[in-house]
Design a protein that fits this description.
This protein is mostly helical. It contains nine helices and two strands, in the order ααββααααααα. The protein folds into three domains: 82 residues, no CATH class; 42 residues, no CATH class; 73 residues, no CATH class. Helices cover 57% and strands 6% of the residues. It has a two-stranded antiparallel ribbon. A hairpin with a 2-residue loop joins strand 1 and strand 2. The mean pLDDT is 83.
């Protein structure tokens, strides 16, 4: 009588782990946690908050760690050598992964956030640098940032006087979104004094759904 399947499963799993570990050592790649599970990779190691989980992994395996998020490889750099990734070798690390979210939310990977390095990316970066992020443009839009910060402070003061609990993460998210939309479209979609209430409601729903997909 043939042994049941569950007898072979531990052997197959052990062989898989050994093979992964053996070939990892043969290749010139950064260290990684030994247990790289099929399909999910190292996702089982991640808990909220994400930065805390990555810090624990870095403390154990070193400042440069290679993780697998599902079938996608992710390089975690948490030390001064990160400057080499972001400055000296920024072109090498400039490409974006072709995720499904980038296809549907980034107009088939053509937006600045999702497009890979190349002529199109350089053109978008030039436009954003001139029209939004230049010193002259930022100075012109200085009043929007000041007004939004003042509005946020007034809201916090009111909540304090009413002894209401405040979610700081939500407050700063709404502040950031109002600043960004004020600079781009001259509108605010969070908090008080919204000119387009229905438009603001739809915008908030879109942002919520988008963040859920990403």
């Amino acid at each position: 009588m043939d042994p049941p399947l569950f007898v072979y499963l531990p052997l197959i799993f052990a062989l898989y782990i050994f093979t992964q570990h053996f070939f990892h050592k043969l290749r010139n790649i950064p260290p990684a946690p030994i247990l790289n599970l099929p399909f999910i990779g190292h996702l089982y190691l991640l808990k909220k908050p994400l930065y805390s989980s990555l810090a624990k992994i870095s403390n154990r395996y070193g400042p440069v760690v290679l993780l697998h998020f599902g079938l996608r490889r992710v390089l975690v750099v948490s030390s001064p050598p990160a400057e080499e990734c972001l400055a000296k070798n920024d072109v090498i690390f400039a490409n974006r992964p072709h995720l499904l979210a980038g296809k549907h939310l980034g107009n088939n990977y053509t937006s600045l956030v999702w497009t890979s390095y190349g002529d199109h990316w350089r053109n978008l970066r030039k436009i954003s640098s001139i029209e939004i992020l230049s010193s002259q443009r930022l100075q012109m839009l200085h009043g929007i940032r000041v007004d939004e910060v003042k509005s946020t402070i007034r809201g916090l003061n009111w909540a304090s006087e009413q002894r209401r609990m405040v979610d700081i993460q939500t407050v700063f998210f709404e502040l950031t979104m109002n600043v960004v939309m004020g600079m781009i479209g001259g509108k605010r979609y969070y908090g008080e004094n919204m000119e387009e209430v229905e438009e603001g409601r739809r915008f908030r729903e879109i942002v919520k759904d988008t963040l859920g997909l990403v």
